[in-house]
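User: I'll paste a sequence; please echo it back and then give the predicted structure.

Assistant: Echoing your sequence first, then the prediction.
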Amino acid sequence: MQEQRSYVKACLAELPNAQRLALELAYFGGLSHSEIAAKAVLSLGTVKTRIRLGLKN
């Protein structure tokens, strides 16, 4: 479990801040795309794109 945690942290550290934040809010914060958009004052499309790009990397 610790090895997986270290791997995820390392991968997140390589992402641009905007993508990392969106992924952290979605997967660790449990927020929906709409909730992230409202919290970050972004359009829903922007949030979806950042998450998609972050997962793609």
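The chain is about 80% helix and 0% strand. The radius of gyration is 11 Å.
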